[in-house]
Fold:
Amino acid sequence: MSSQRIETEIQAGHEVDVWGGQKSSNEHASSSKPYYDLMVIVPAASSEQSRRNAIRRNWDEYVDSNGICKKCGSNRTSKLLFLVPQADDEEMRKEIAEKTDIAVLAGLTKEMDFYRNLTAKVKNSIRYVVRNFRFALLLKVDTDSYIFLDRLLNLAEKSDMFRSADDTRPGIYAGKFFLDAQPVEVEGSRWRDTEYRRLTGMHTFPTYACGAGYMMSPSLAKYISHQQDAMEMALKQNRNDDEDDDHWTSMPQLQDLVNEDVSVGFWLQPIVHHKVHLPVAPFALGCTDKSQVIDHHVKEKLFDLRAKAIHANGDPCSGDDVARESDLEAREGLEVDRQSTHR
Structure:
């Protein structure tokens, strides 16, 4: 936003980070911020309450009140957090008041909350968690991404992904990476991007992790967050300086691209980091291929069936109903993918 508000608001009992706002009070005492080994952020639209509840039902089967995965054989703590626009109806305000897993990006209105603005939403979601939490690993997923939490924690442990804030090693950027991909410029495509080449002068995307689910170390998340803070401080100082004093100029800012996952890869491209492959399935394949740690494009019906399966048997893939629905959604997804490829 060109006219960013610099303030912190309190809404429905939760501290609310403002879209482009100043540091919250607990940023000045990092030890007071709650700590989780794994921080999971889910940028969501206000209209996706049903999806949020489907995610919660699975999360509650996996994680106890202390953030420990009950069925994972791990003592790592995890926190789920939805980032949403300002509440515009009573049902949304009630959810925010009653739940502890949701935060408002207060400068983001419902009218601004559309796919093409997802990059800014994700950037400010990362900024929110950096300011309000301490963590060893950050995971961003979509609302239709299913996390096999036991597999993910096990992979993160084996790959040495958990990093303390003072770890001097290069940060981890993990996901399903695309190399040498090119922007889609076909009319009518949801992912149409006619801006990338104009903005960057490049014909191919940087190596980037699929937006269905990617992870980063605290150092990389802080880099993205602090770039915005530095820009804001420069702008604020520039306003306070004498108009004739040209010592201060506008601080360069991170370029928002059309696709949020490409944007993250673009921002991190010049930063020293270590890439780690994360098995992310494009559809509901994780119950037939147990190497997958995230399924994408999962429908609410399958979310609910998997939650019931965990509750009954401790395994999201157990039972004939889960197998049938997983197979149906996978076949439907593959067919849609096949048709779009041949257009």
Q: What stands out?
A: Residues 1-29 have pLDDT under 50 and may be disordered. The chain is about 35% helix and 15% strand. The CA atoms of residues 234 and 251 lie 6 Å apart. The two ends are 36 Å apart (CA to CA).
